[in-house]
Design goal:
Shape: globular
Strand content: over 45%
Distance between the termini: 12 Å
Structural class: mainly beta
Number of helices: 1
Mean pLDDT: 94
Number of domains: 1
Order of helices and strands: EEEEEH
Helix content: 10-25%
Strand order of the largest sheet: 3-4-5
Number of strands: 5
Largest sheet: 3 strands, antiparallel
Radius of gyration: 11 Å
Low-confidence stretches: none
């Protein structure tokens, strides 16, 4: 079971929590990417290396 992560939607200036997200790695950094509940855009959250490897 995936854990819930909190995200900040920059466009609507609001926080939300989601269990539906993907993990992406770019330039040796991990990110959690979730769909915004208030639009069609994605919201990105930076993860630590340990958290990214654990959730991957």
């Amino acid at each position: 079971m995936e854990e819930s992560l909190s995200f900040y939607d920059v466009k609507s200036k609001s926080k939300f929590e989601s269990k539906e997200y993907g993990i992406q790695q770019k330039n040796n950094r991990y990110f959690a990417v979730a769909k915004s509940p208030n639009g069609t855009h994605d919201c990105w959250r930076v993860l630590s290396k340990e958290q990214g490897e654990r959730l991957k």
